[in-house]
Amino acid sequence: MGRKLHQKLQRRDAKIAMLEEEKVGQVMKQAELQNVVSNLHNVIDEKDLKLNQNKLDKEKTKQRLAVHSEKMNKELDEKLRRQREHLAASMKAKEIQLQKVREALNAEVIVRPENMDVDTIFDKGDKTPSATIENHLPTSCPPKRVGYNGTPYHRRRSRSADEVWLEHNTVKPVPLGTVMQPSMKKRKSVTKLDKAKDVTNSKQSKYCLVAQEQDTDGETETKLYKGDIVPTCGGGAQVIFNDVECLRQESPTGSPTK
């Protein structure tokens, strides 16, 4: 009887020991599973963080592109505005220059009989016109190029040494600092044409109108409007413009004109 009880106790102790081992194994397995779960959570958190960071980076990149695009648009608009202003200023300057030339031609070069003395317009003997400068040619008598003999203009240039110039300065010109200088060896300088004989003098065959102005960059530009003084059939004279010379100085480091 005692022996059977002892065997029974041994079997129970062995079973308890086995259960204890199984329990320890289950605990260890549970710990391993918890570690796996924890690692998986860490991986998920890292991926979420990366996704959020990528999203944030994309948002920042989008904002930078928007700012850069807006800046480029503003710079382009400003550049276009400056170009339009420069073009408008250039056109205005040219219009002013043309207006000055028109005014000079209409007010100075064209001398009307009513602006001259009677003794100047008519000879004292027969009272026939002796000197007038005509603006419009009469339809009944076209002007004759006296002394031309049908010789083309480009061949007359060879006799430039014998030509006498009438230099017309509407304003006192600023002295030129250019290496190239206007060459008029024989000339008569006037500031205003108020007498017909200023133009109808037979010794003068060339006319030069000197004009100076500042361009849009503030540089002084000198223009010489050159022409031939041609007698007319009415005893007067007219100027036929055929050439323009431009002299200007600008900084070698200045921006080019567009």
Report a brief summary of the structure.
With 258 residues, this protein is α/β, with parallel strands linked by helices. The protein has four helices and five strands.
Secondary structure elements and pairings:
Elements: H1 2-109, H2 118-121, H3 153-156, E1 165-169, E2 187-190, H4 197-200, E3 206-214, E4 220-231, E5 237-248
Parallel strand pairs: 1-2, 1-3
Antiparallel strand pairs: 3-4, 4-5
Pfam family, one: MKLP1_Arf_bdg
InterPro entries: Kif23_Arf-bd, Kif23_Arf-bd_sf
Domain Kinesin-like protein Kif23 Arf6-interacting: 155-253
Query: What best-fitting shape do the alpha-carbon axes yield?
Result: rod-shaped
How are the strands ordered across the major sheet?
2-1-3-4-5
Tell me which CATH architecture of one domain applies here.
Sandwich
CATH topology of one domain: Immunoglobulin-like
Largest sheet: 5 strands, mixed
How many angstroms separate the termini?
126 Å
- How much is the average pLDDT? 75
Order of helices and strands: HHHEEHEEE
Number of helices: 4
- What is the radius of gyration? 51 Å
Assign a percent range to the helix content.
40-55%
Low-confidence stretches: 108-159
What structural class is derived from the secondary structure elements?
alpha/beta
CATH evolutionary superfamily of one domain: Kinesin-like protein Kif23, Arf6-interacting domain
* SS elements, strand count: 5
